[in-house]
Known about the structure:
Blueprint: E1 6-9, E2 12-15, E3 21-27, H1 42-54, E4 59-63, H2 75-89, E5 94-98, H3 102-111, E6 115-118, H4 126-132, E7 137-141, H5 159-176, E8 184-187, H6 196-204, H7 206-210, E9 215-219, H8 224-230, H9 238-250, E10 253-258, H10 261-275
Parallel strand pairs: 3-4, 3-10, 4-5, 5-6, 6-7, 7-8, 8-9, 9-10
Antiparallel strand pairs: 1-2
Amino acid sequence: MIAHPVRCLGGRSIDFSRRIAVMAIVNRTPDSFYDRGATYALDAAIEKGRDAAAAGAEIVDVGGVPFAPGPALPIADEIERVVPVVAALAPIVAVSVDTFHPEVARAAIDAGASIVNDTTGLRDPCMADVVADSDATIVIAHSLAAPRTQHPLPRYDDVVRDVADFLRERRDLALCRGVPPERIVLDPGHDLNKNTRHSLELTRRFGELAELGDVLLVALSNKDFIGEALDRQRGERLSGSLAAAVWCATHGARIVRAHNVPETVDAMRMVEAIRGWREPAYELHNTRPEGNS
């Protein structure tokens, strides 16, 4: 059970006891793993975010630096990439900034971001200070390596237990730094310093992570564990991504980060309808005397 299910994101209230939010991905990078720079141009990034909001995404996650290993990008350049997109989208949708730099987080919050998505799990504790000094929510993801570095052959005694322990520890750090519990979201970090079997195990036992009592986010869209499980290349992983997202949603995930927004929104709305959280959009089938079989 979620301890604090009602959250305010971008001035909009979401009750995660009865709602599964879709977080759309907008990568303002020339080397993102999925779209290969398709939204690197400012106009393209803003358009993608607006389209995602129109398709039903409750959150748009804007990133200026990939998670994958690579050379450091100057902080000023990362700010230049993400802040104009945040400012353009914040009036219409809750905006998240995907960054591990406190300075970038501060600039994005000032521009209207309501969520900071830290895939390094507060490796820099000052990130918690920035969030605590604002109204923003922090997403704490599990990962092991220093930012943008390799972590070859990751090993876990028990990947679910180890990830849960890490998230508990980093959650406590955020709380100690003044972040209220109702502004913390946890992400087990599928594929982040994990091999395919690790990510499958996290997915299979996702219900154990839900016992942490926090709003949980999953970022598994089109990832390599789906490709390796199904022998599918990038661009062929939508069905696997939706299956994994639905599994996690039925076992406690409440935010699903996705590239394919309309399809993911439909999948999550269907989960909500099956659970009885959402009324059908309309009812015609077998509701008239003449029949509609």
